[in-house]
Fold these 3 entries.
Entry 1:
Amino acid sequence: MRTRGAVLVTNIITGLALGYTVTNIGFGDYGELNRMFTFRDPRMLLAFAAAVAIIVVVFALVGVRRTPGRIHAGVIPGAVLFGTGWAISGGCPAIPIIQLASGYLPALVTIAGVVVGIWLCRWANARYFRLDRGSCGL
């Protein structure tokens, strides 16, 4: 039986392991991320490509199938905003937390940007767009 405490401890251990791994391979380093986005160092790009290839094989082995359907109206602008923010700040939403834990204080600006961005997205969606929130829970 899984209790809330057991799930919390598991999540903390998993998060620490992820942070340790990401930091030690250099993916928490702003300079490394900048080199990836400016195509000066393909190491991280190749790591992402390998991860996608592995998950494609795993999905094929376990029989995961996606039924074709309409792309959610928020996917394209959301992806553009996410990628732009990642390129400017040097991190997706998890990386600034790892950077902050490593003592990189400018990550606070990125974390504040994520919080403000989520708030603005919810506000704009409620006021103007009224998009189906799907499973993301905007």
Note: The chain has six helices and no strands.
Entry 2:
Amino acid sequence: MRPILPLLSTALLAACITGPAWPDSRDANLIEQVEEKADLSNSLSDQIWEWAEVGYQEEKSSGLLQQTLKVEGFDVEAGVAGIPTAFVAEYGTGGPVIAILAEFDALPGINQTASPDREERDGMGAGHACGHNLFAAGSTTAAIAIKDWLEETGTPGTIRLYGTPAEEGGSGKVYMVRAGLFNDVDIALHWHAGDRNSAAARTTLANRSAKFRFHGLSAHAAGAPEKGRSALDGVEAFDMMVNMMREHVPQDARIHYVITSGGSAPNVVPDFAEVFYYVRHPTADGVEAIWTRLEDAARGAALGTGTTVDWEVIHGNNPLLVNETLAKMMDSKLREVGGVTYNEEEKAFAETIYATLTTPTLPIGSESEIQPFEVSLGYGSTDVGDVSYAVPTVGLNTATWVPGTPAHSWQAVAASGTSIGHKGTQVASKTLTLAAIELFTNPDLRAEARKEFDEKRGPDYQYRSLLGDRDPPLDYRK
């Protein structure tokens, strides 16, 4: 759910890091150790890509990752935070505790073969259009490489991998934060599939979603229309009111929706209809202000159409709290690792995909580059935001897709099931490994990151979840 987006304004740009970086002997050895795990990473990502399990239903994907980590010597606790597919895998003792996040849910309603031409997979109602199969595999192999290093060197500390389900609209990490699972973590690392290599310090939008359910009276639409009250009329009136409201919300706000149920037959007045809404804004307070107006519009639509309405908040995420200290470190590690190099077959695949993109923002060839470091506002949202308010957090994107590919597209599904996705995942695994070892061995860096974190949160900060105290919506994709 985190598209790579253009900058909000040039005023947000920070200093650009352009100088080349070369791995020292320790880092070169670590990179080689990660490369030796490429077959494992590729196998994990391909299997999770095949299953394409949606949020809170990732039983096989979660089980595969857990079993892999158990075999590698991790202690695994499954079913944490009241979520059957969430888990925490840990190796080591004492501090510092470095966490790596791993996502593995697919997106419903979109699927594609691993082909550069549009070609749906028979019988599949979902696909990895955000590359979470790669996310899971890359984080897992990085955690294993770090475990091996801790074991070989005898360095004190704990590496912990968090299996975080349902990022796509389910806010799995929020429940894990709320359950206190990050309370003893020093630093959290994450990454994401993308169309470029970047460790830019990019914030995200806070967001909240809900399913608004209208209830009316069914009747024969021709024989007795006066006896009916259309729940679909309630939804349509609500949508019209919100669409008018779009003119009067802050510029950086985003509102979107889908009608998930609108009736079954035109000659039956529908007594039930449902619409699923998202609201986004750079701040949690901004989301809540717009949300109040959304609820008022729902009540008004119900009143005007003679129906009733209720709603269920499905998910809510805080914005990402950027830690520039950690972001600059991650950028330097990414530059040590470098980008992706296509072979001839991959070039041909990329060129075919590229021809299907409407407005690609990067050329083919940029996959081998590292994008400039900058501080900017992104318009996607993620439950990593809540983690970033619990513990200093940093991430990166790597070129797992053809340059210019948008997230949540069939082109992203296709590349996520190929060697192009594998190569970008290797870049992420290597970078995460180097970053974690730097954090284990550099207490001054950890202290500086914590100082920035405390200053940005403020002395009076108290965590507040945008989804309230509800239980995880384990059936929201059913």
Note: Residues 1-22 have pLDDT under 50 and may be disordered.
Entry 3:
Amino acid sequence: MANISGIAKLAGVSVSTVSRVLNNHKYVSDDKREAVLKVIEEMNYTPNKNAIDLIRGETKTVGVILPYNNNPAFDQMLNGILNKASENDFSVTVLPSEYNKNKEIGYLQKLKSKLFDGIIIASRASDWETIIPYSNYGSIVSCEYTHNTEIGCSYSDRYSSYLDTFQLLKNRGHFAVAFTTARLESNSTNQMIDAYNEVFGELPTYYHISDCQCLDDGWEAAKKFLQSPERPTAIYANGDEVAGGIYLYATSQQVNIPADLAIIGQENQPTGSVLGITTIDHQLTKVGEEAFNLVLNKSREKIKVPYSIIERESV
């Protein structure tokens, strides 16, 4: 079987010269490069990618830890990462975690084993104290804000966006406001509850439903909200698909949107656009793009991506 040592011997050059040719190094004379390439062709040699990665000191591969691969919000983030990866000739490996801490640590071990140049964490279950030591082995970038100096992050200021959204509803005369979230135990859920309390006062338990991910979840959430002790006049959904389910259930019950019920979604997704639902766009594609740039530049910067409120007919 052909190997670098054999190629070097047949071409009459050193092993390091063969390595430089395989890595497209510019400091190789034309005659030596030609001799090496001729032997490679004659021996039908295919270089071992892992060996070349070790020589080069990089894999040109980025891992992306994300909980689900069928969630519109994470799809937007991943799309941004893929855009920039393609521009820079990088490969992307998707690492679905389902918020399983053991899976997350297993993926970080791959960074330690030099299988990735860096890892982007779209969302996590593990605490930062567990994650940070792995930053010694490659770039780790978060898609949520973290004050840790060892970790770069690309993020949208979600707390401010939640405050602005609740304040918008209050300014429109809504005081009975309900909302949905994806996970009960998460930073974004805690921030949304804090923002609600700041704008409206203490949150009634029947105005918050968690574990909402899709259209069907929105339908079921709307059914519960509209049967609550004090029916809400506005609902803020954690995604436009969830908002779409709320919209469809409400209209099936002859609830007029927005006269009887105002609805706001998130992330400017097609469902919201088709149904005319007001949305909070956290520009997740841009968050993904900036996250990749941080890995590429081995940067630990904190990059804040601005959000915007897109008003439509549902408020």
Note: The domain at 61-156+285-307 is CATH 3.40.50.2300 (Rossmann fold).
